[in-house]
Amino acid sequence: MRDGRPYPEHGLATKDWAMIPPRQIRLDTLVTTKRELALDTLLAEDSTFYGDLFPHAVQWHGELYLEDGLHRALRAALQQRTVIHVRVLDLDALMSTDPGRVL
Predict the structure, then answer these.
(1) Which stretch of DSSP H or E encloses residue 3?
(2) Which residue in 24, 33, 94, 97 is a FRET match for 79, CA 20 to 30 A apart?
């Protein structure tokens, strides 16, 4: 667990995330960037009703940081699932193809 994002700002909006296809990720490979968990959100059945169905993660320096979807990941863990579908923005790949890119 971290407190905050260790990677640079990427500027993706919700519609941009929707363009990234989800893929299966092992829960034990995700590092959360949030220190607090809201129990009411965890227990809410409609917590993703207005948002993306899939959590968002950012790959940076070989690590997968869970940017959005902590409650969905925890619910999956409580259901004894080991993997979830996640949209992954690979900043490592983006930066290696264009090192001068400013996000």
Answers:
(1) none
(2) 33
- Under 8 Å between Cβ of 66 and 37: no
Mean pLDDT by runs of 10 across the 103 residues of the chain is 78 92 96 73 55 88 92 88 96 76 54
The widest CA-to-CA distance across the chain, in whole angstroms, is 43
- Element holding 63 (H helix, E strand): strand 63-68
* Percent over 70 (pLDDT), the chain: 74
Helix, strand or coil, per DSSP, at residue 31: strand
Q: Which residues contact 76 (CB under 8 A, 6 or more apart)?
A: 27, 83, 84
- Evaluate whether 18 touches 48 at the Cβ level (below 8 Å): no
- What's the distance, Cα to Cα, between the start and end of the chain in Å? 24
Q: Whole-structure pTM over 0.85, yes or no? A: no
